[in-house]
């Protein structure tokens, strides 16, 4: 493509001139929309307003003054507001936004103040209503208490009058009854006393039987602790020892299980090392071609012997630990059973009557 400022003529030059003229005419028609930005071919940028232009030059008014630019040196012209206008527009938008936010804040504060005032008025009205209801309730309770007190006083007065009338009637009857009637009344009262005594005796026997039936026995506690350590103590009503026995038993069981796992693992290692020990003798290693001289063969044999001895020591230690843990578990289990027989709860307090005698019995289980 030929440059618009070249000296070549012809049709293409004419057409390019017409195209440039249309482009510049359009740019000139819309230059009033804002500041123009002219980018030169050397990278320099000019910002301002196009004052005039012709076929070869563009006159630009910039903040630093008027400049004349060659169209042949221009790469691109862009249109839009100047940085100062953009800055002023941004400041104006920011100022309007701040004013809007301030107005919204004032409106929100005013509404909040109105809400607070309405809430305070509502609370004051509720407090007054509550006080009035409390006062009415107190007056009602006081009137009810006065009414009940008055009714109680009236009932007591009526009861006293009835008791006095009853005593008066009894005195009149006593003054009128004969000796035979008096003896008959005494016999009836004695009979009533005997019936009451027999009834109390039967009730006491029933209570003792129920107490014995509900009292934990040693056999029941022993069987329960045999199934689950601590259950027998719980059956006897000893809650804290029951929890201690249960937790200790399961802890010892876990330790015993862990010791058994360690014992089995170390026994396997010892068996494996002892099985390979015969193949690590100097004669065997030289025969199999593992070592080439006596010194290396002896070193291999010494290493194998040391490893086998170390595995044997660990195996014996694990065996002792497993036996100790299992013995502790079995011993604690046995002591758990013995505890249900030795430390039974203290029971057996009873009070019995036989005729005119009163018996007090106390039994201690240990």
Gyration radius over CA:
58 Å
Helical region count? Answer: 8
Give a count of the beta strands, DSSP E runs of length 2 or more: 7
Which range best describes the helical content: under 10%, 10-25%, 25-40%, 40-55%, 55-70% or over 70%? over 70%
Quaternary class = single chain
**Structural class of the helices, strands and pairings?**
alpha+beta
Q: Strand order, main sheet: write it out.
A: 4-3-2-1-5
Q: What would you call the shape?
A: flat
Distance between the termini: 122 Å
Helix-strand topology string = HEEEEEHHHHHHHEE
Major pleated sheet: 5 strands, antiparallel
Uncertain stretches of 5 or more adjacent residues: 1-8, 27-34
Strand content: 5-15%
Structure report:
By secondary structure, the protein is an alpha+beta fold. Among the domains are: 11-80, Roll (SH3 type barrels), CATH 2.30.30; 228-346. It is built from 8 helices and 7 strands, in the order H-E-E-E-E-E-H-H-H-H-H-H-H-E-E. It has helices at residues 11-29, 83-176, 179-214, 218-227, 231-235, 239-277, 282-288, 294-342; strands at 36-40, 45-53, 57-62, 65-70, 74-79, 349-354, 357-362. The strands form 2 sheets. The protein has a 5-stranded antiparallel β-sheet with strand order 4-3-2-1-5. Strands 6-7 form a two-stranded antiparallel sheet. Helix 4 (218-227) runs antiparallel to helix 8 (294-342) and helix 6 (239-277) packs antiparallel against helix 8 (294-342). It is flat, with a radius of gyration of 58 Å.
């Amino acid at each position: 493509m030929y440059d618009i400022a070249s000296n070549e003529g012809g049709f293409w030059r004419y057409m390019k001139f017409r195209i440039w003229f249309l482009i510049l005419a359009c740019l000139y028609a819309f230059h009033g929309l804002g500041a123009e930005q002219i980018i030169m071919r050397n990278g320099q940028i000019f910002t301002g307003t196009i004052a005039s232009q012709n076929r070869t030059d563009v006159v630009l008014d910039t903040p630093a003054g008027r400049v004349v630019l060659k169209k042949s040196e221009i790469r691109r012209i862009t249109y839009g507001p100047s940085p100062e206008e953009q800055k002023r527009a941004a400041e104006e938008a920011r100022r309007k936004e701040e004013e809007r936010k301030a107005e919204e804040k004032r409106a929100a504060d005013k509404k909040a103040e109105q809400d607070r005032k309405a809430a305070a008025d509502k609370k004051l009205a509720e407090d007054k209503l509550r006080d009035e209801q409390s006062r009415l309730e107190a007056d009602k309770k006081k009137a009810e208490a006065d009414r009940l007190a008055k009714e109680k006083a009236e009932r007591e007065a009526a009861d006293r009058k009835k008791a006095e009338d009853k005593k008066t009637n009894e005195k009149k009857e006593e003054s009128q009854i004969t000796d035979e009637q008096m003896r008959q009344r005494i016999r009836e009262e004695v009979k009533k006393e005997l019936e009451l005594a027999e009834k109390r005796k039967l009730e006491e026997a029933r209570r003792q039987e129920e107490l014995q039936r509900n009292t934990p026995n040693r056999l029941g506690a022993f069987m329960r602790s045999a199934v689950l350590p601590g259950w027998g103590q719980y059956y006897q009503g000893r809650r804290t020892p029951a929890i201690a026995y249960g937790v200790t038993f399961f802890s010892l069981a876990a330790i015993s299980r862990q010791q058994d796992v360690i014992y089995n693992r170390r026994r396997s290692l010892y068996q494996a090392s002892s099985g390979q020990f015969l193949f690590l003798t100097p004669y065997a290693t030289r025969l199999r071609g593992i070592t080439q001289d006596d010194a290396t063969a002896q070193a291999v044999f010494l290493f194998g012997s040391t490893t086998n001895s170390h595995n044997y020591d660990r195996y014996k230690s694990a065996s002792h630990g497993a036996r100790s843990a299992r013995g502790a578990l079995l011993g604690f289990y046995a002591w758990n059973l013995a505890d249900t027989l030795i430390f039974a709860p203290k029971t057996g307090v009873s009070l019995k009557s036989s005729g005119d005698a009163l018996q007090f019995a106390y039994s201690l289980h240990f």
